[in-house]
Amino acid sequence: MPQASFPLPYQHPFTPDKKYKKSVVYFSMEFAVDQALKIYSGGLGFLAGSHMKSVYALKQNLVGIGMLWKFGYYDQGRKADSSMQPEFHEKIYHFLTDTGIRFTIPMLGKEVRVAAYYLPPDVFQTAPLFLLTTDTDGNDAATRAISYTLYDADVTLKVAQCMILGIGGARLLEELGYEPQVYHFNEAHAVSAVFHLFNKYKKVPELKKRIVFTTHTPEEAGNEKHDIRFLENLGFFSGVPLDTVRKISGNSGDVFNHSLTALSLSRKANGVSRLHGEVSRAMWKSYPKISEIGHITNAQNKAYWVDKKLEESRIAKDTAGIAARKRELKQVLFKTVADQCGKLFDPDVLTIVWARRFAGYKRPDMPVWDLDRFKKLMGNQERPVQFIWAGKPYPKDEGAINTFNHLYYLGHLFPNVAVLTGYELTLSKQLKDGADIWLNTPVVTREASGTSGMTAAMNAALNLSTFDGWICEFAKDGENSFILPVAQGGDVNKQDADNLFAKLENTVIPTYYDNPEKWRNMILNSMDDVSVEFDSDRMAREYYEKLY
């Protein structure tokens, strides 16, 4: 990484559009801006990356602060039998600039040294990004390890990572001589910054007018909590006394809730879909002193994700052109299938893709719960189907890894089933380009937004989904997507699985093979409906209009 003389005080490299002059700093644990920069795990990073690309396109006065993860999230490798295993490899990025800025933070009972690197906006057409690391001279091995892997499984290290992002990000701005009008926390990972800023501004109203918060958590149990004295011993509160911490953060007793703190000290907050906004307001209604919670629905950067030829055909309303290009893109994906799995897929066969983070509530294995029914579906020679799974489980989530590998082993029984590793930006793009159906199966209300289906729709795939997250604002069943009815009480899993097969057998497969004109019209509707409302340019504008 080259070290250049970094000009101080820092000045934003854009001349901002007059609508977006207010200066904002956006704190996020992960950013997915390019395949080459592996500092993301999944949806939160994909969202932040698209946001940063729209900042660049719209010339907004926003700077991103994140972390430079030495090993990234992890590399999804394969064992000797080709089942998946997490692997950790050092990443070196010659396109980042070493700012030469070094500072220390008191934490873990010692002075931790932090280094700052810079991603100039023109490298990947993003907002300017500052990335922090403890893997620098002057730190011992244990301290360097803070910034090794995104979302470390060790509780102390994970909190330390959040402190580097939060306190470290606030300290970086002081080193840069850059004081923004708005501090935007994308999730509560950086909330430790509020106590550093409280020491600076002294009064809660002065703090609140500068802070906004985006929550991505759809249920109370998902909000991070820790023992307040454990955090104090780590240096989380920047020397603010515990009585004051409790008073200003909305927490009482010994349990510190990170999201509650962010809501208590923000001027405004937002959920990430209309449904998630409603769920969030209901979840936090017993805390009357928190900020108002609105919603700004997540989106993805169309300019980055969409295939140019597909988009030209969409604009021309050329459904035959879309179909022809889709067939070409399926062949590109199927080369990856052949390379990884030794299976030759047919571009004329209906191809269903389930690809995103592997997690229990997302229910990736729902299609195989009734194995007999799945075998019948996959064995139909008259109306054949191909199925592809991909996605990364959390590296310590043995249950999700076992689910992934169960599907991989099960795939040995079917020449038309593929389970792919390496789900990062490049493979994600291939899968969305090559899918006919983008399958989405979360338990309803558990998915705050979800965004993978947006970019699939941009690339002429139809969503087949439970009615959750962003889908509620997009879907018209039978017109631009296929939607499962919401399960009513009882065994929700069984209802959803039965409804999935009923929709596949009675609607999706017959439409693909027997009514290609309707299929093509549905795709055009889907592409049109996703094109503007779920492009991150709309989202980035709304953040300035509604939150900043």
Q: Would you mind describing this structure in some detail?
A:
With 548 residues, the chain is an alpha/beta fold. Helix content is 40%, strand content 17%. It contains 21 helices and 19 strands. The protein has helices at residues 43-58, 121-124, 141-144, 155-176, 193-201, 204-208, 228-234, 242-249, 258-264, 274-283, 302-305, 308-315, 319-341, 371-378, 398-411, 425-434, 452-458, 471-474, 492-514, 516-531, 536-547, and strands at residues 24-27, 62-67, 75-78, 84-87, 97-107, 110-119, 129-133, 182-186, 211-214, 225-227, 255-257, 268-271, 292-295, 350-355, 385-390, 417-420, 437-440, 462-465, 481-483. The protein has a nine-stranded mixed sheet, with helices on both faces. Strands 16-15-14-17-18-19 form a six-stranded parallel sheet, with helices on both faces. The protein has a two-stranded antiparallel ribbon with strand order 3-4. α1 (43-58) packs across α21 (536-547), α12 packs antiparallel against α13 (319-341) and α17 (452-458) packs across α20. The radius of gyration is 24 Å and the shape is globular.
Short description:
The chain has 548 residues and is α/β, with parallel strands linked by helices. It has 21 helices and 19 strands. The strands form four sheets. The chain has a nine-stranded mixed beta sheet with strand order 5-6-7-2-1-8-9-12-13, sandwiched between helices. A six-stranded parallel beta sheet has the order 16-15-14-17-18-19, sandwiched between helices.
